[in-house]
Design brief:
By secondary structure, the chain is an alpha/beta fold. The chain has nine helices and ten strands. It is globular and about 50 Å long. The chain starts with a strand and ends in a 10-residue tail after the last helix.
Length: 250
């Protein structure tokens, strides 16, 4: 049986009187492409922030890469990469400077950092723009640079939180081509959050979330078959009673 890269049991988070995440039980296998599908505000980003140790759980437990997110947060951070909804690159630094700075933060010696940066800018189509300030890049190229930084320390688990938000269709397709190639080359576990049905379709399994609760879990084909519908959007409607476009409350 394939080991779990991510495990959550009864995981929950409250912000005052608002319950953003409620009793999440989840297992993500090593090497799996796992999608968390739901409308904006459903609790997807809260889930990622808990698993990535950016938030402390109100209740429950979670382990990522075998490490407890509450008791061993530094070990968790060493084994994960994280790409946020908005770029966190320094826009005034070049692509290469951003990656060098990230390498210093990860305490990567030059003998490792230099060839990794070289390989990543080539792999992500940034070689010709590596000396250009990030602010001069297109949205799609900035996302590629975010991915390159997220992969610099060779993580075992990559969290992608709404990675294509704000991108045009062409840039979105290009980004997903990069991610597919990355998974094929490395066997990486990818945990994606999205409200785009077409982005969830290629996932090995999909968890459907609404108002901080998991309402469905399975392969895209199984979810559609057991629900008796033809699309993940219809799965969401059948399980929640409202369209995916509506906003959740967590």
């Amino acid at each position: 049986m394939t080991a779990a890269a991510i495990e959550a049991r009864g995981l929950g988070k409250d912000f005052g009187s608002i319950r953003a995440l409620d009793q999440l039980d989840l297992d993500v296998r090593e090497g799996e492409f796992f999608g968390l599908l739901g409308p904006n505000g459903a609790g997807k980003t809260t889930t990622v922030h808990l698993l990535a140790t950016l938030l402390a759980p109100t209740r429950g437990t979670a382990r990522v890469g075998g490490h407890d997110v509450a008791r061993d947060d530094l070990a968790v951070r060493r084994v994960i990469g994280l790409v946020f909804q908005e770029t966190t690159l320094d826009r005034d630094l070049t692509v290469q400077e951003n990656l060098r700075f990230a390498a210093r933060l990860w305490n990567l010696p030059g003998r490792l950092a230099v060839p990794r940066i070289e390989a990543l800018v080539r792999q992500f189509g940034l070689f010709e723009r590596r000396a250009d300030p990030v602010r001069t890049l297109s949205g799609g190229m900035r996302r590629a640079a975010d991915l390159a930084r997220g992969m610099l320390h060779e993580p075992r688990v990559l969290f992608l939180d709404e990675p294509t938000a704000g991108l045009d269709p062409r840039a979105r397709r290009s980004l997903w081509d990069l991610i597919r190639r990355l998974r094929q080359a490395s066997g990486l576990t990818v945990f994606l959050t999205t409200h785009y049905v077409e982005e969830a379709e290629p996932c090995d399994r999909v968890a459907v979330m609404d108002h901080g609760r998991l309402v469905a879990l399975g392969t895209p084909a199984d979810l559609k078959r057991t629900t008796g519908v033809g699309s993940l959007e219809e799965v969401f409607l059948a399980r929640t009673g409202h369209p995916l476009a509506e906003t959740g409350a967590g």
